[in-house]
Amino acid sequence: MEEPTTLVSDEDLVDSLPAIDDERIQLEDPEFETDPFLLGFEDTIRLGCCCPAKEEEVTTEKTKKTTTRDRVQAFHLRKSLNLLDKLHEEKDLFIQKTRGELRVCHQRMDLLTKQQESLAAEIAAEREANNMAALGRLQAASRRLHTELENEKDLQSKITAMLKDSENAMWHIEIQKGQFEDVRKRNEEEAEARLRSLEIHAAQQLQKEKETLEKVERNRLLRARKSLHVQKELGLRHQKLVEDAQRNHKIAVKFLKASLGRAFEEDQKLRKQEIVSRILKEEAEEEHRKKRQQQPSKTTDQWTLRDKTWKYISDFCEGKTAITTNHLLENEMALHPKPSCLLKVISSESMQMDLGSISTEEEILAEPDIPGLWSKDYKSYQVSKEDMERKPVGGTKMDKDILARTMEQLRSGVVHKQVVSGREFKGRPFNSKPEVIHFKDFDIGKVYKKKITLINATYTINYCKLVGVEESLKDFIHIDFDPPGPMSAGMSCEVLVTFKPMINKDLEGNVSFLAQTGGFSVPLKCSTKKCSLSLDKELIDFGSYVVGETTSRIITLTNVGGLGTRFKFLLDSEFFEMEEHQPIMKMSSVFTYEDKSLYEKIINSLSEQQLDVDGSSPLDIPSRKESEKLDEAEVTAVASAMTMVPSEEQAEITLGEVTEGEIGPFSSIKVPIIFNPVIPGEVQTKFKVMFKNSQCPTLYFRATGIAVDVPVWVPRATVDLKICMYDRLYQDSITVHTRSKAALRLKFEVCKELRGHIELLPETGYIQAQSSYSVQLKFLPRYSLPEDAGKYFDQDSRVLEAPMTIWVADQIKPVGFTVQAIVTTSDLEISPLEISFGYCTIYEAIRTEISLSNLSLLPQEFGFVGLPKYVDIQPNDGFGTILPLETLQLDVIFQPIKAKEYRFELVCKSEINRCFKVSCQAVGVHPPLELSHYQIKFSATALYGTTVSTLYVINSHLSMNKLTHSLPRIGSEEATPVGPTSFEFLVPPNSPITISPSVGTVLPGKRCLVQVAFQPVLPHEIILEEAIHILNKETETKLFRKETTQRKEQWKQSLPVVRVHNRDRPTRASTPHTQELQRQELSASSNEYQAAQATLARTFQGKFDRFVVPCVIASGDIKDRKASEPLSFSPYNTLYLELWCPVVAPSIVVTSNEGKTVVNFGDIAVGHRGIRKITLQNISPEDLDLEFSVLNPHGPFVLLNPSRKLCSGETQTLVLSFSPHESILAQETLDIISKRGTLTLTLTGTGVASMITCSIEGNILNMGYVLARESVSINFKLQNESSLPIKFWMRLESLSKKRAETRQQLPKFLTSHEQRTEIVGTQNHNGQSVFSVVPVEGLMVPGKAHEFTITFSPDHESLYFSDLLQVVLFEKKVSHQILLKGAAREHMMFVEGGDPLDVPVESLTVIPAFDPEHREARSPPPEAEEMKPILVTLNYVQFDTDIPTPPATRELQVGCIRTTQPSPRKTVEFSLDSIPWLQHKGFSIEPSRGSVERGQTKTISISWVPPADFDPDHPLMVSTLLQLRGDVKETYKVIFVAYVVAGL
Predict the structure, then answer these.
(1) How far apart are CA 931 and CA 734, in angstroms?
(2) Cβ atoms of 886 and 853 closer than 8 Å
(3) Could you tell me the CA-to-CA distances from 702 to 541, 558, 678, 685 in Å, in that order?
(4) Among 954, 953, 955, 956, which Cα is nearest to 997's?
(5) CB neighbour list of residue 629: distance below 8 Å, 6 or more residues apart
(6) Dist CA 524 CA 442 (whole Å)
(7) pLDDT tens digits along 1458-1476
(8) Which pTM value belongs to this model?
(9) Is the pLDDT at 349 greater than 90, yes or no?
(10) Does pLDDT of 915 surpass 90?
(11) Is the pLDDT at 20 greater than 60, yes or no?
C-alpha cells in the first residue's frame, strides 16, 4: 500500500537505505575508502598532534568508515561523467552533420550562381535576337534561380548560426570535461581495482561452491543408501504381511466351508421333509375334493398347474423319472381346442413364462454341490470357547484398515517418476499386442488360451508386475505371468491368459499390471456365440423379358456369427410362426402399414378381456368360454391380415426350391428367385426372411421385372443426356435388341419439332436375328430450342423430353424411347461491367470487388487472361471453378506504376472459350512525397503501454528533367514544381494513435523523421459503466449497513412503529436519472474511475485493431502560410499509412493505491524529500526481467530500489523519492520495461518554496542609541506565504559554532582595505549576548504572520554593537539574514554623522573603566575631560561649464537618548563656536545651537562654497568646538576638511 508523504532530511534518508544497497555500493566503489585516509593524514599534520601512535589508530578507524553520503555523491558523479560523454558525442555528430549540410549548401549556391551567369548570357543573346518568347522563359527561369539562391543564402545563415552555437556548446562541454579529467582518471583506476577485487571475490566464491557441492554429493549418497535400506525393510515387511494374510484367508475359507456344509445339509434335510409332508397332505385333500365333484369327465381329463406340480414332486420324492416340459405341453394342447393364431401366440408366451418358473423350482430342489445339511451323517457342531474368542476372518476392522494403508504406502513407494534427459515420462508404460484380449464365440466347459505381448514404452529400464483381474472375472480368468525383471526400453514379455467359461454371458473387464512408473491395464472381453445375418442385396432387378420366358437370380444369405439358426424365405404378405415364438410386439413387423390399425385394435380388445379375469393365468383362458369369445368379424379380419392371398402379379416372381433350412455359423446359403412374366408390364414383389432365433431381426428384400410382348426392344427406355449447354454437341449410342429369329428392318424417326436439334444416324438399318443394333444420337441444342420444342420443353425446369420412334417392318406397334435432357446456358455474368478506380498513387493499391455469377446449371472453369502487370485478381490469380448458379466475389487490385490515365479491359474466359469483358479506367498519381513504410505492424502492446515506431517522409523530387526520372504529377496534368512540400497526417478521432510531428515541411532531397506511437487504452464509456457499478455496490453496502443499524434500533421500539418505518423505507434501486448524475460526477481523476480502470485492465482479454491514417500533401512551406490561411492540400496527392495494432493484457500491474499509475507526492518543501511506495505484481505466467527508464539525473525524482527480476505472481515494492530543489511543478515518467510490455508510472509533485516575508524593510535593523545597562525592544513580523507549515529557528551569528574560530583570526580591518566589515561587532563584557530574540523556534502556519521581539541590552558604552540574525527553515535553509546594529552611551547625549576615525573592534588590553564599582570614582572632572574629534569632509564638485555648482553639504545628528532612569535634565542643549569665522571660510551651519528632547534627534546641516581666495591645490582645514549639555557636559572638536574636485 502507498504510504503518506513524509518530510525527512538527507541524513535520515541515507540512514534508512537498505543494507544490501550499502554492500552493493561498497563493492562497486571501493576506491572511496582511500579519501578519508588522506584527509585524516592532512588533519594530523596541520594540528601537530604529539601522539603519533594514537593518531594513527584513529586514522585507521576513519579509513574503515565510508559514509553513505560519499558513496551516493560518487555515484551521481559517475552518472554526470557518462552524461557529459554522451552529450559530447551527440554534439560532435551534430556538428559534423551541420558542416556537411553547410558544404552542400555552398555547392548548391555555386551551382545556382553558375546557372545565373549562363542564363544572363542567354538572356543577352535572346534580347539581341529579339526573341521575346524565349526571353520571357529565360527571365522566369532567372527569377526562379534568384529565389532559390536567396533561399539558399537564408539556409546558409541559419546553418552557420546553428554551427556557431553548436561549437560554443562543444567548447563548454570540452572545458567541463577538462575539469573532470582528473576525476575520470581516478574513476578508471578505481574501476580496474574494483574489477580485480571482484575477480578475487569470484574465485573465492567458486572455491566455496565447489566445497559445498562436494558436501551435497556426499549427503546425497548417504541419503540414497539410507533410502535403499528403508525400501528393503519395507519390502520384507510387505512380504510378511502378504503371507500372513494368505495364511489367514486359507484358514477362514476352510472354516467357512466346513461350517456352511454342515449347516446347509441339515437345513435341506428338514426342508425336504416338511415340503413332502405338506404336499402329500394337500394331495389327499385334493383327491377327496375331486371325488365330490359332479363332472368327472372334466376333472379326469383336465390337469391344472397345481396338479402337475404335486405330481412332479411326488415322482421326484419316489425316485421316478420326471415328466419333461415338452410332454406336459403336448398333453395340455391336446386337451383343449386350438384357437386362432394370435391367441396361440399369446398362450405360448404365457406358458413359456410359467414353465420357466417350474424349471427354476426344479433347479432349487436339486442336490447342492457342497454337501452340508443334506448328509445323513450330519452332527450338530458345537463351537468351542477358543473359536469364539478368535478374531473374525481377515482380522478386525482396524487390522483391515492398517493393512490397506500399509499396502497403499508400499504400492505408492514402488511407483517412481521416470525422468530422462530432463524429460519426465508421462503416459502408458507398457503397450499391449493385441490391445484387447478378446475371446469370441466361446462354449461353456471349454478352455481358451491367448498370449499377449507387453512392450516397454518408457524411456529407460522399467519393471512390470501382475496385479490381477477384476472380481467379476476371477472365477473364469487365470493369468500366467512370470515377471521378467528389469526390462530395457523397447523390450517385451509375454502373458498367458486362460479363459474357462462357466456361464453363457458376455464378460468385460481389465487385467491390471503395475510398472515402476505407474499402473496400467489391458482390456479383456469374452463374447458369446451370436447370429449375424445379412443379405447380399436388397433389390433384384430382372430387367425386361418377353412374356413366357423364365429367368432366375440368386440372393445369398450370410451368417458371420458363431451361432447357427433356422431360416425361412416367404412373401412379405404371408404369415408364418416359427417354433420359438417371438414376442407380440415384435410380430407387428409382419404386417403392412395399412393393417396395423386393425391389429392394434384386436390387441387392445384382448388385453381388456385379460384384465377382466381376476387371478387367472394365461393357461386358463381356453377353459373359460365366456371370457375368451371374440367377435367373429374381428377374428376374420385378423385371419385375413395374417394370411394374404397372393395376387396374379406377385405370382410372376416366386421363390425357388430352397426356402427354409438351417444356416450354420460362418456360412452362407444361396436361394434362387424366379421371374416368369405372364402379363406385359412392370412386376414388383416383396420378400422377407424370418429366423427361429428371436434375437435375429427379420430381413426384407424386393424383386422387380418388366414383361414385354414385342421382339424388338430398347434396354434404355429413357436416354438421359443429363445437363447440356446451348450450342454444344452431345452424342450417345443407343442399343436396340431383338428376340426375333429373322432379320428385321428398322427406321429411326425424330419428332418434327426437334429435327433441327436432334439427329439419329443412320436413319434406317437392319438388325440381325437375336442380336443387337447400335444407332448414334447427336444432340446440338440451339438457342431457339424453347420455341421449337413446344410442349416437349418445360420453360420453368428447362427439361426437354423428346419422344423417339423406331419403326419395325411388318409390325404395326412401333418401339419408342425418350431422350431426356436439361438444357442450360453457358453464360457467365460479371457485375459491374465498368470499373472506375479513380485516383490512385503509385505507392498504394486500390482493391474493388466484382461479382462473377454462373447462370448455368453446370460448373464451369474460368480464368482472367491477358491481365496488365499493374492489375491483379485474387483469389487464385483469377482462375477457378464456379459451381452452378453460384456467385463468386473476386478482388480486383490495381496498382499504377506511373502517373498517367489508364484505360484497359479485363477478359474472363470460360472452359468453352467464351469471353466476358469488364471495362476499367483509373488515374495514376505520383505524389511529390513518399513514405519509407506504408504499413507498420506494432508488436503486442500491453494495455496502457506504449509502442513507438519510426518512419520517414521523403521528398525525392529534385529536378524537372523528365528524361532522368518520373515527375510527380496527377495523371496527365502538369508536374509538381521542385520546392518545399508540406504534409499532414489525419489521425482518426478517439484512436490510440499519436503521430509526431503530424504536420511538417520537407525540403527537396531531405526527409523528415516521424514517430508513430501506439498507446492502447480502455474506452471511457466502459470505464464509466464499471465505475458506476462499483459506486452502486458501495452505496448498497452502506444502505445495508444503515438499514441494519436502524433495524437494531427499531427492535427497541414498539411493533406499530416498526411497521410504519418499514413502509417508509427508501428503495435501493437507482433510477436512470441517478445514474446519469453519477456519470456526470465521475471524472478520470476520481477514485471510483481509477479503481474501475484497474479492475478492467486486470481482466482484459486482448484485441486487434487496424487503422488507416491518410497523409495529405500540399506544395509550399507551412511556415509561409498566414495564421488563418490553410494550405491547399490536394485530395488526390494522398498517402495512406496502415497500422496493425494488437493489444494484450498488461503483464505487470500496480496493486497499491487502487491500481493507480499516477504517483502524486503532493506539496513538498524545497530542499526536503517525500517518499512514496508503489507495489507491483506480475500477473503473467512467466518470470520477467525488468529494466527501468532513466530518470532525469538533475531532476527531483529518484528510484531508490530498482529490481532486475519479478517472478510470476510475485509482488514487489518500489520506493520513490521526490526532493525538489526549487519551486516547480515537476512531472516525469518512469517506464518499467519487460519483454511482454512496458508499464509507465507518472510521477508528479509540487516543490513549494518557503516563501517568508519580513516586515523589516531591507536587511538592517538599527536599534539606535541606548544607555549602557539599559535595554530596548523592537517587534517585527514574519509571514508564511506558502501552502505548507514551516518550522523555523532563529540563530545569532555571535552564538554560532564558528564564532570561536573567527575570533582566533586577525581582525578584518587589518587584512582588508574596507573598514567596518565585521558582521559581529562589540559584545557585552558580562558574557551575555547583547542582542536576543523571542521566540527562538516554532512552526509558522500557512498564511499567518508570526511576531518576533528583538531586545538590545548593552552593558557598556560602544558605538559598534552588531550581530547577524538568521531565520533558518527546516534546520537547513536560511530564509532571511538581518543585520542588527546598536550603540550605547554612558550619558544621554550623542553625536553622529562624521567620518570614521577608529576601528570597530575593541582592544583586548583595554580595561573597561565604566564598571559599576569604579565609574563614579574614576570619572574625571569636567575641565579635564578630553575632547572627542569629529571629522567632516566636504567635496565641492566644480564643472567646466557655466552651470552653477551646488555647494558641498554634510549633516551631523545630535540626539537625546530616552531613558527610564530619573534625570534632572529632560533635554540636551548643543552649540557651535566660531560661527563667523567659519562663515568667512565659506561654511554655513544651520542651526548653530539648539535643544533636543528625549528620544529625538536634530540635524545640523553644513554646507561649503569655496571662498574667492581659496587655493584648489591646498585643501581647507578648520575646526570648531561643539558643546553638548545634558546630564553632563561634553565637548567635541569638529574638524572640517574641504576639497575642490573637478567634475566630468
Answers:
(1) 71
(2) yes
(3) 9, 17, 19, 6
(4) 953
(5) none
(6) 14
(7) 887 777 778 888 998 888 8
(8) 0.40
(9) no
(10) yes
(11) no
Amino acid symbol at 1533: K
pLDDT of residue 834: 93
In 3D space, the residue among 698, 704, 681, 657 whose CA is nearest the CA of residue 575 turns out to be 698
975 CB contacts (<8 Å, ≥6 apart)? 960, 962, 967, 968, 969
Say how far apart CA 56 and CA 574 lie, in whole Å. Answer: 132
Start-to-end C-alpha separation, the chain: 75
Q: Is 666 left (phi over 0), alpha (psi -120 to 50) or beta?
A: left
In the block, cell 561498497 appears at 26
Average pLDDT, the chain: 77
> Using 50, 70 and 90 to split pLDDT, how confident is the model at 308?
low
pLDDT at 51: 42
Which tops the pLDDT comparison, 1156 or 148?
148
- pLDDT higher than 90, residue 947: no
Q: Give CA–CA dist 524/438, Å, rounded.
A: 6
What are residue 1382's DSSP bridge partners? 1361
What is the average pLDDT across 1249-1270?
A: 84
Is the model's pLDDT at 6 over the cut of 60? Answer: no
Strands (E), 517-636: 518-528, 533-535, 539-546, 551-559, 565-571
Three-state DSSP class for residue 91: helix
Note the maximum CA span of the chain: 201
Phi first, then psi: what are they for 301, rounded to 5°? -90, -30
Q: Is the dihedral of CA 1363, 1369, 1373, 1375 positive or negative?
A: negative
Question: CA of 81: how far to CAs of 25, 75, 167, in Å?
Answer: 18, 10, 20
Strands of the sheet containing 1007-1014, edge to edge, are 930-931, 947-954, 1007-1014, 993-996
- Per-residue pLDDT, 496: 93
Question: What's 1395's DSSP letter?
Answer: B
| Least confident interval from 75-89, 610-624, 990-1004 | 610-624
Between vectors from CA 995 to CA 991 and to CA 996, what angle results, nearest 5°? Answer: 150
Nearest to 1202 by CA among 1193, 1211, 1189, 1184: 1189
Rounded Cα gap, residues 250 and 258, in angstroms = 12
The three grid cell numbers given for residue 1394, joined into one nine-digit string: 562624521
Contacts of 838 (CB under 8 A, 6+ apart): 846, 922, 923
> Nearest CA to 1321 among 1312, 1311, 1330, 1332?
1330
Backbone angles phi and psi of 1363, in degrees to 5? -160, 165
Cell of 827: 453464360
Mean pLDDT across 44-49: 37
Instruction: Please give the residue that has the higher pLDDT: either 450 or 620.
Output: 450
Q: How confident is the model at residue 1425, as a pLDDT?
A: 55
- What's the rounded Cα separation, in Å, for the pair 31 and 617? 116
Residue 27: how many other CB atoms lie within 10 Å: 12
Q: How far is CA 884 from CA 727, 781, 830, 1385, in A?
A: 18, 19, 15, 128
Closest CA to 330 of 348, 313, 342: 348
* 715-748 exposure pattern, b = at least 16 Cβ within 10 A, e = fewer: eeeebebeebbbeeebeeebebebebeeebebeb
Q: Which H helix or E strand runs over 301?
A: helix 296-301
The pLDDT > 90 percentage for the chain reads 18
What amino acid is encoded at 702 in this protein? Answer: R
| pLDDT for the residue numbered 53 | 43
Which sign, positive or negative, has the C-alpha torsion 91, 97, 102, 105? negative
User: Phi and psi dihedrals of 321, rounded to 5?
Assistant: -75, 130
Q: What is the pLDDT of residue 1402?
A: 64
Per-residue pLDDT at 314:
57
